[in-house]
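Q: Convert this sequence to structure tokens.
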Amino acid sequence: MLTLCVCVLLVLNIGVCKECRHHKHSMIPRNRPSEGQRILSRAKRGWVWNQMFVLEEFSGPDPILVGRLHTDLDMGNKNIKYVLAGEGAGTIFAINERTGDIHAMKRLDREEKAEYTLTAQVIDRDTDKPLEPPSEFIIKVQDINDNPPQFIEGPYKGSVPEMSQVGTSVTRVTATDADDPVYGNSARLVYSILEGQPYFSIDQTTAIIRVALAGMDREMREEYLVVIQAKDMGGHMGGLSGTTTVTVTLTDINDNPPKFSKGSYEFIIPEDLGIGKPGGRVKANDRDIGENAKSAYSIIGGDERDVFEIVTDAQTQEGILRLKKPLDFESKKSYNLTVVATNIRADSITGGPYMDQATVKIIIEDADEPPVFTKSAYLFDVHENAAINTVIGAVAARDQDATHSQVRYFIDRHTDLERQFNINVDDGKITLAKPLDRETDMWHNITVTATEVRNHSQISRAIVAIKVLDINDNAPEFATEYEAFLCENGKPGQVRGHESGPPVASPSISRDNSISVLAKHDSFRRQKQETYLLPIVVTDDGEPPMSSTNTLTIRVCGCSRDGTVQSCNVEAFVLPIGLSMGALIAILACIILLLVIVVLFVTLRRHKNEPLIIKDDEDVRENIIRYDDEGGGEEDTEAFDIATLQNPDGINGYLPRKDIKPDLQFMPRQGQHSGPNGVDVDEFINVRLHEADNDPTAPPYDSIQIYGYEGRGSIAGSLSSLETASSDSDQNYDYLREWGPRFRRLGELYSVGESDKET
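A:
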């Protein structure tokens, strides 16, 4: 039976086993299932100790005894061997194989590993066979206070509004301790403030930092540095501690009013200051920051005429005085304004809003101003028949400065390019310079300037609109050249034309200034007269009356019975009844198109030729085309360049012909012997060949030199070395008959040539 004696560093006076009395270590009995206890259980093959050992963590370096293994088989025999297996066996824990003592060889840290599971067994030293079943036990590392508290998230930052009440929460800090939180007080922390009193306090359990002093003012001090300590062991002596810092910032509230740097301001501005231009700046300072320091400015007194306004500069927080209306030194020389600066944002703690006011005195400085017209725009009228130099009207301007400078008047010629008007430089009278015509320009808009004599840079402008009044100086006339029609079968007195025109002095005039033309008889015929030119005198009612003679063109037309105009041309009589000119043109176009198609068809039929190439595969004359011109032979050098067809290899000397009999044999086939137009090709070639051979002066017709070059590298050799009977070669051409049907005719021709030579 294997017995394990447990050596525990904790003093547990429960009992001592006889094997461990000399070590003075406790043994946990079986009936105590608590931590640090050993439990005995009976197995079939002997006693097995399933034990949990408790061992405090230590830092070394000397080995520490954990326990001892002992078996009933160990009677002092040297053949018994104790072995240890499991977590840390051989590295962290070692066993004496003879005595069974277990030692911890390395540093044990509960924070790295809290327990180890191992197996002990007794084996035979010689055979390594187990003598008893293995026994499993656990070594639990007991925690000691070896880790100080740490603030993982530190240093901290917090904020709280200024003037906060005592107890107002600022922030919370958190410290952690790596020791066992369930064993002892190693991980029980207590918080305290080392620096930062009496302004702040901390709850020693929850670590919440709170305000401890009332009335803290950000404008006096904005930032505080607080040092917090966390101590384990419940804060008792011997505990470990850690510290962190907390930066507490007081945030601003609106607890300070704006304040002008001085109670009164004075500005001097010229009276010619432009509208919207700044005339001065005031500023109210605020000790607060951000939105709490922003102020809005307003004028609450001294500006009855609503001449000024004040706006806030968003960048500098200044109040800018601006002009809303023109200044007039002659009417008012100074202004006394009351300006107020008010905080935009009110605070719920302190109330508000806060404000401050100041007095602003504005002194107007006289400036040389341009003359001022009595009106900004003038309206005059004049008849179009007014004489040259007629006075149309007058403008007036006055220098309102104290000097009252004289004024000179001019016309801006950019607005009167034709120089239609003149103006008197002294009194501003506008006169006519050129004749007017209302029908050309009814309105004339000119610009008149007034300039100080003393200072020519002071100029003012006014618009003068001149309306040209009409007189009866134009005779009435037709608006356009009118044309009326008259039915040749119409009745007398019937209205055939109704044309609009200018006013006429005629009994037949209508209210819309139109006239009616009546036919006096029914004898109008287009064959006799197609067009009538009717002169009409038109007179207006003006003073004096004006008149003009206008011509009305009346065309005689053919009409239907209901008076609808059908044709107004004389040539319409020659057309068939019921057909218009457009219909006749369409019919004529169709006839011409048909004639063109017929002519083209006949032409193509006449010029159609029979094909020149015989498509019969059995005809030996394939690819032979008959020409009237048989070529000029070697003397013909105009048709094409023969040099490009000559063999470059034969330039320097004569290359003998090399005939190669083809390997493929072709079956002979019967061909046709009659050529085009009934001419026998064989006979024709034989005759031509005989003539060429026996006529030394005639050029050769076969042009054999043209085909002397057939390309290099051909395995078939040359096929163009055709010789006539005048050649010195005695070559036999009987082999041509063996080359197949395509070369049979050629062989017969050469055979004929050989026979002619022999004869």
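Residues 273 and 711 are 105 Å apart (CA to CA).
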